[in-house]
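Title: Request for sanity check on Glycerol-3-phosphate dehydrogenase [NAD(+)] prediction

Description:
We are preparing a figure and want to confirm that the structure record we downloaded matches what your pipeline produces today. Could someone re-run it with the sequence below and paste the raw C-alpha cells into this thread? We only need the C-alpha cell string, no images.
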Amino acid sequence: MAALLLELPPPPFLNCNHHQFLSSSKTSLRLHNFPSKTPPPPPPPTFTPTTTSCFLSTVTSSSISKEEKEKEPHSTAVASTNAPDEGSQQDRRKVVQIAWEKLVRWSRSWRSKNNKTDLLERTNKVVVLGGGSFGTAMAAHVAYRKSSLEVQMLLRDPLLCQSINENHCNCKYFPEHKLPDNVIATTDAKAALLDADFCLHAVPVQFSSSFLEGIAEYVDPGLPFISLSKGLELNTLRMMSQIIPQALGNPYQPFVLLSGPSFALELMNKLPTAMVVASKDKKLAHATQQLLASSHLRISTSRDVTGVEIAGALKNVLAIAAGIVEGMNLGNNSMAALVAQGCSEIRWLATKVFHLFCDI
C-alpha cells in the first residue's frame, strides 16, 4: 500500500499557492452545484377511491410533486440520491391508476342504472307489426313494463282489432289471456307509426317484404326496427337484416334482432325466459336490452347479427327433429346426441356459407 501511494502523482494543491487552490475549489464546487440538503421525498398520498374529492386531491398532490422534481437540477449525485424515489413514484402512480379505474367502473354502473330508468321515461310509444302469437306476447310484455306507455299493434284483420280494443284479448291466439289496457290495435299504418320510438316487427319472414313495402312511406328513417321474425326467405335466402332495409328503401335503417329459445305462451304466463338482442350498433343493442329486460325476461347483447340470425333459423329444423325423437320414445341419450350433432352442424353450415358475415 505504501509503495502505491508513493507512485501516485502529487495532488494539484501542492503545486499551486493557497489562493489558486481556493479559486479552483470554488470553481469546481460552482460547476457541480451540489445542493446543501436533499429535500425528503413527499409522503405517499392516502387515497380513498369512494369519493371524487379524494381522487382529485391525490392527482393534484402527485402533479405538484412531479413539477417540483422537474425544477430541481439534475446531476449524477442527485440522480443517485433520488434513485429510491422512483419506486415510490411508481407506487403512487399505481395507486392513482387503480383508484381511477374504480371510479370509472362506479360511474359506469351508476350511469347504466340511470339510463335504464331514463329510457323507459323517454319512451312514449311502441308499435308492433303483426298480431300473431309472439307479436301479441311481446306487445303485452312491453305494455306491462310501463303503464303509461302506448303500445299499438298494426294488424290487417279488423275483427282481431275489435277483439283487442273491446275485449282486451287476442281471440285467435290467446283468448284466455287479458291484455293490458294500454295495448291498442289498429289497421291504420300512418297512425300507428306516427311518433313511434321503437318498432317490433313480428310479421312472418315470407310475408315481411311485401308488408314493409306497403308501409315504407310512413316509416321514419331513424325508427329502430326490432325484428322478432326467425327464418330465411324462400328462393332468395335473405335474412331479416337484409329484408327490412331493402323493403324500406333505407340501407341505414336502425336494425336490432331479437332471438332465442322462447315460446309465446310461456312469455304470456311470465315464466323465466332468456333471449339475445344482436345489432351492429352497440348503443342500440343496449337500449333494446333496457326496453325489454324484466324480472322474468333476461336479455343478452351481441354484435354478431348474422350468426344470431342463422342459428335462430336453423334451430327450428333441430327442434322438429327433437320432436320426432320424443314422439318415437328413443330416450334421453338419443335426444342429447341429436342436440349435440345438430349444434355442430349449425356452426359448420354458418361458417361455411356465411363466413364473411358470421362469427359463431
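Thanks, this matches our download. The radius of gyration is 36 Å.
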